[in-house]
Amino acid sequence: MAYLEIKNFNKSFGNTEVLKGIDLQVEKGQVVSIIGSSGSGKTTLLRCINFLETPNSGEMILDGVSLINDLSKNDSDALLREKRLNFGLVFQSFNLFPQYSVLGNITLAPTLLLNDKINKRKQKEEYLKEKTNIENDAKALLEKIGLTDKANSYPCELSGGQCQRVAIARALALKPKILCFDEPTSALDPELTGEVLKVIRALKDEGTTMIIVTHEMGFAKNVSDKVVFMADGVIEEEGDAKSVFDNPKSEKLIHFLSSVNNKDGE
């Protein structure tokens, strides 16, 4: 059994069918890139995986535990939040809180979870210990993304690439089982894209399981263990990066890669 299994995901918005029976497997430590034209359903799939959308039908199993099934539609808000913690999502537009420093952005969600778990008045010593651990973990993440010197800076003082690296650290702070990216470089100038891709490559080397929706074909080819091409709400073709990019079989994939290469001037 794969680490993450998605079985027959279907999703409609009104009369528009966006996902049409998606089956996807992701192994632990694997990097899976999802590519395709706008409107193919790739972002909707990512949002369903992260519980930001609810599929109309289908099942999702993570590490042997069924998180989405016919019964999960009745999940309480608390249970949904608990399930969502299995996944970290990095948005294309960063979504950092402008009123918090870099360190504050990274520690905010873990601190809120700590507040729910421990009564800081009755369990003061334990609370302070855990709070210190959260701050130390956040500082270690800042070192990992190369922004130790920006801990007390605010988002308005950072470049787009730095903001996206902070967003990655913030997602990692909750220690998700799978880290997801929705077009992580689309809001960046080309010269800032490289610093974000460098962080993602480092995470791959550490064995982080990742699902990446991306328009960066060169990056997808170089970093992915598996590439999934979506078109018209279905997985049209999938395989290792070399076979998908160098020997595509689907006419839709051939046309897509040709149009991307022409746009890039290749």
Ends apart, CA distance between termini: 40 Å
Q: Strand percentage, roughly?
A: 15-25%
Task: Detail the poorly predicted runs.
Answer: none
CATH architecture: 3-Layer(aba) Sandwich
Rounded average pLDDT: 93
Q: Give the total of beta strands.
A: 10
Shape verdict: globular
Tell me about the largest β-sheet: 6 strands, mixed
Order of helices and strands: EEEHEEHEHHHEHEHEEHH
Helical percent range? 40-55%
CATH topology: Rossmann fold
Class of secondary structure makeup: alpha/beta
Entry keywords:
single chain; 9 helices; 4-stranded antiparallel beta sheet; 41% helix; Rossmann fold; alpha/beta; 23% strand; 10 strands; 266 residues; 6-stranded mixed beta sheet
Structure description:
The chain is of the alpha/beta class and 266 residues long. The chain has one domain (4-263): 3-Layer(aba) Sandwich (Rossmann fold). It is 41% helix and 23% strand. The protein has helices at 42-49, 77-84, 102-117, 124-144, 160-172, 190-205, 217-223, 241-246, 251-263, and strands at residues 4-13, 16-26, 31-35, 57-62, 65-68, 87-90, 178-182, 210-213, 226-231, 234-239. The strands form 2 sheets. It has a 6-stranded mixed β-sheet, sandwiched between helices. The protein has a 4-stranded antiparallel β-sheet with strand order 2-1-4-5, covered by helices on one side. Helix 4 (124-144) packs across helix 5. The longest helix has 21 residues, at 124-144. It is globular.
